[in-house]
Amino acid sequence: MEPILEIKNLKKYFPVKQGFIRRASGQVKAVDDVSLTLYEGETLGLVGESGCGKSTFGRTVLQLVKPTSGEVMYKGKDLSKLSFKEMRPYRREIQMVFQDPYSSLNSRKTVRSILEEPMKIHHLFTRKEREEKVDHIMELVGLNRTFADRYPHEFSGGQRQRIGIARALMLDPSLIIADEPVSALDVSVQAQVLNLMQDLQKQLNLTYLFIAHDLSVVKHFSSRVGVMYLGRLVELASKTELYKEPLHPYTQALMSAVPIPKTGIKRERILLTGDVPNPQNPPTGCAFHERCHACMDICKVERPELKEVGKGRVVACHLYK
Ligand code: SF4
Ligand code: MG
């Protein structure tokens, strides 16, 4: 498989106002030196608790936030170096699906005008062609085309997320960044939307970066899974390997809540003690050490770097040499 997206040493630091003085030291390392590659046609799941930087990571890819440093190579082009205007063609190819379809859909517009908007912005197609495209995509996402003249509030949560997905598809993208696309939906509806996304991927040859806080959601159709903690990637592995034998103690803790496939048996529950540390003042050494059941002396002083521990499998933890 060809790489479609290669992220290299990506950092996004946000300055934090402290009182009236903006001190140079006051910053949050939302994304701190993350490198990973996405291959065409795959789904890479990215998980971690809220505030771990996974949404910022997704937005940085689309240049919705400019990275502090690092490269975002899309099909060989570094998007982080492009101007707003130069970014335009790539904004067609890379689309985002958001967590809350309701707040991301303009409530004063009909579904048809919401779906036509991206084509208008990019000056694509005649009016008739745009109408036909809306009808086609509506059916592709499982919505009756007669619904196009209704407003977002007339739909259920699941239907609204279908509209959000339809909007992302209007410009025939190659890569979709889905930021917690089912987190706001009832469990019964989640599976339907995930199945739809999976079908669309096959039909349209889409690549997904699928962001979630829950390992059971990305398990559904990710080929590989990355785990983030406080702005850093702490583990990345194929789905099969990660779910069979998670290596990083943080992944192990997240995983202990997920039933083992086919048996429904849960692993021994590892409770995460304490809260996610304040990202403005992260712990020394391994940022996870205050919550880690396997913490050693070295963990408090030395930050573990990502190490390759198998083919395409990396982990950042002193337990693995
Ligand atoms: Fe735990 Fe140490 Fe590994 Fe961090 S480096 S996850 S503290 S064992
Ligand atoms: Mg988020």
Question: What would your notes on this structure say?
Answer:
It is built from eleven helices and twelve strands. The strands form two sheets. The chain has an eight-stranded mixed β-sheet, with helices on both faces. It has a four-stranded antiparallel β-sheet with strand order 2-1-4-5, with helices on one face. It is α/β, with parallel strands linked by helices. It is globular. The protein folds into two domains: 161 residues, 3-Layer(aba) Sandwich (Rossmann fold); 79 residues, no CATH class. The longest helix has 18 residues. The structure holds iron/sulfur cluster and magnesium ion (MG). The site of iron/sulfur cluster has 14 residues, from loops.
Helix/strand/pairing category: alpha/beta
Assign the CATH architecture of the largest domain: 3-Layer(aba) Sandwich
How many domains, as an integer?
2
- Give a count of the beta strands, DSSP E runs of length 2 or more: 12
Please give the largest β-sheet: 8 strands, mixed
Q: Indicate the low-confidence ranges by residue numbers.
A: none
What oligomeric state is this? single chain
Assigned CATH class of the largest domain:
Alpha Beta
CATH superfamily of the largest domain: P-loop containing nucleotide triphosphate hydrolases
Q: Span between N and C termini?
A: 29 Å
Q: Provide the CATH topology of the largest domain.
A: Rossmann fold
Strand fraction equals 15-25%
**Shape, principal axes of CA atoms:** globular
What number is the mean pLDDT? 91
The ordered H/E elements are EEEHEEHEHHHHEHEHEEHHHEE
Q: What Rg, in angstroms, do the CA atoms define? A: 21 Å
